[in-house]
Amino acid sequence: MKDRVFARTTATAAVLAAASAAVSEFNSRFMPSLHSPEQDVTESVVVCVPARNEAATLPALIGDLAKQRSCTDLRVIVLDDDSTDGTASAARAAAGGDPRIRVVTSGVAPPAGWTGKAAACAELARLADEDDPTTSLIVFVDADVRLEPEAVAAAARMLRRRGASLLCPWPEQLAESTVERLVQPLLAWSWMSTLPVPLGNATLAPSMAVACGQFMAFDAAAYRAVGGHGCVAASATEDLDLARALRRRGFSTAVASGAGFVRCRMYRSAAELRSGYSRWLWNEFGGPAGSVAAALALTVVYVLPPITALTSSGVARRLGCAGYLAGTVSRMSVRRRETGSRFGVGDVVDAALHPVSILAFVGLVAESHVRRRRGSLSWKSRPMPAPHT
Length: 389
Description:
alpha/beta
């Protein structure tokens, strides 16, 4: 009886993994991508960069922004958010006196109930409006992002062509260390394996929104209409919640592949990665019960099949092999779409370790809940605000 239940569970897992692989492959083929613009972008564009203790990464981004092409009216505002590592000095040195690039320093702590990033982005938007109230497109870019010379123009063109109010070109998530390679590809995989992106982009359903705060291009009027970052002041996932706020007001949002245009290495150590994920994963599945359900589902679908393949025989073993192969294909399809021409043998090896990645992710979800219960959630040396209840 136990063997029969085990085999049926593995069969169900294999079917679900195969469905995930099918969605991943669909998105690999049909997800929209940034393309070099055929004409210059002539509208007023401001790029806003919140930076806290980013002296090591920010100069490279500023260099990329100074080289942007095909935007005839481009301004850049960098906000040094009370850094202690010389971020402002590094930013000014990198700007080299470029009149398009303004570096502002702030020594003010975030208001009560605000995350540091939301407060910094709101201040950047205020500064952008103060400089030029007619700015029609506002772009937020994280300090650790790298941009190709036509990235901003390509995003602006796609935003206008689609008639969207928010476009998020998904950056290639660079991963160098072992822990990064296990975890970082799961960011794109989590939604590209479950949501047909063209359908998600075509609807206003908040539940089908996808966003990435590393690069967000907004129609400035729509951003102001929903209250900007003020409407997500305390959110641990301000990017996604902003997209949902826009959709609830009838504004469309879209995600596209930024392969070949945008890339980002989010974390550079295991400790930094754990801290980064723990600040928001507690909120990813709607609370503890949702997290337990999600962890159980992920484990059954992607960890059970390889265990069955190794420990069983006959039909059960074949089902386990099929489920494991489907999970690996799903992971490879997503990573190939995310990285474009940079996809390589290392990505295939990482995909083969997908069950280990799932277990690592489940551990991060658990750690996030533990830290939240202890009141120890923080980011960039600042405590996260308590969520509204």
